[in-house]
């Protein structure tokens, strides 16, 4: 099985598990915090067990796991977020949560998948190109609910409007799917938040940078990237210019 297939398979399996956990929580009346904790724990365990079976010699960095630093010297490292958007996962009816699975080789994502379980969508590096933008009056800049200000600067530079939602994976895949044109996260992100979305977006032909315009590097000793910008190529110069104060 190729790495692209492994990424998609495991992201989908973890997504299915999270849907099952959510259904059980609703049936049994779990508290939101219990639901979030169980989702994080069980999805992490599934990904660890499956990667140990399918790629036993590769290293792993997971948001929910212990990081002993040994992965830094590994050539192949899987970087996963078993449940991106944990807070939204605990909100009844929310679809703004995701599963991220990516393989990093020599600092760059070589295979990746982002599953949006509640939307029944799976995106991966095996796909061809980003979808054409949906018909609308102007470009859409998508960002986190707490970082509206920087996104407004970007929207002004390209004549667009700002929209917000939860989960880095959901926002990034909005650009891949054509319902948004730019995703801006202007502050630092952990690698498990950014890696799989960045890998899928790059494979789809979108431009991906740090907020400072840098090329993103993964599997660093301190697993943080300098923000995340995903844009359709025709907007990249204007977007990065607006973010360089």
Describe this structure in words.
This protein folds into 2 domains: 122 residues, Fructose-1,6-Bisphosphatase, Chain A, domain 1, CATH 3.30.540.10; 104 residues, D-Maltodextrin-Binding Protein, domain 2, CATH 3.40.190.80. The mean pLDDT is 94. Helix content is 39%, strand content 23%. The chain is an alpha/beta fold and 245 residues long. It contains 7 helices and 12 strands. The protein has a 5-stranded mixed β-sheet, with helices on both faces. Strands 7-6-8-12-10 form a 5-stranded mixed β-sheet, with helices on both faces. Strands 9-11 form a two-stranded antiparallel sheet.
**Count of the domains:** 2
Q: What strand order characterises the main sheet? A: 1-2-3-4-5
Q: What's the CATH H-level superfamily name of the largest domain?
A: Fructose-1,6-Bisphosphatase, subunit A, domain 1
Number of strands: 12
Question: Which fold name corresponds to the CATH topology of the largest domain?
Answer: Fructose-1,6-Bisphosphatase, Chain A, domain 1
Largest sheet features? 5 strands, mixed
- Whole-number mean pLDDT: 94
Radius of gyration: 17 Å
The CATH class assignment of the largest domain is: Alpha Beta
The second-level CATH architecture of the largest domain is 2-Layer Sandwich
Bin the strand percentage. Answer: 15-25%
Fraction in helix: 25-40%
Gross morphology: globular
- Helix and strand run: HHEEHEEEEHEHEEHEEEH
Query: In DSSP terms, counting alpha (H) and pi (I) runs of 4 or more, how many helices?
Result: 7
Structural class, judged by helices and strands? alpha/beta
Q: How far apart are the termini?
A: 46 Å
Low-pLDDT stretches? none
């Amino acid at each position: 099985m190729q790495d692209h297939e492994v990424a998609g398979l495991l992201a989908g399996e973890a997504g299915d598990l999270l849907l099952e956990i959510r259904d059980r929580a609703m049936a049994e009346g779990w508290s939101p915090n219990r639901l979030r904790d169980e989702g994080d724990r069980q999805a992490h365990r599934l990904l660890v067990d499956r990667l140990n079976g399918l790629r036993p010699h590769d290293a792993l960095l997971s948001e929910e796991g212990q990081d002993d630093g040994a992965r830094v010297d590994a050539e192949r490292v899987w970087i996963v977020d078993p449940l991106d958007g944990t807070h939204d996962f605990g909100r009844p009816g929310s679809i703004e949560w995701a599963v991220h699975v990516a393989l990093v080789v020599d600092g760059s994502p070589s295979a990746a998948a982002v599953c949006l379980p509640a939307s029944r969508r799976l995106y991966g590096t095996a796909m061809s190109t980003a979808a054409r933008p949906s018909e609308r009056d102007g470009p859409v800049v998508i960002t986190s609910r707490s970082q509206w200000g920087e996104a407004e600067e970007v929207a002004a530079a390209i004549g667009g409007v700002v929209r917000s939602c939860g989960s880095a994976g959901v926002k990034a895949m909005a650009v891949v799917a054509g319902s948004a044109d730019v995703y801006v996260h202007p502050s630092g992100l952990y690698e498990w938040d950014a890696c799989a979305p960045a890998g899928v977006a790059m494979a789809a032909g979108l431009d991906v940078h740090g907020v400072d315009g840098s090329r993103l590097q993964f599997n660093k000793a301190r697993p943080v990237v300098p923000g995340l910008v995903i844009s359709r190529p025709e907007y990249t110069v204007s977007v990065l210019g607006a973010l360089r104060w």
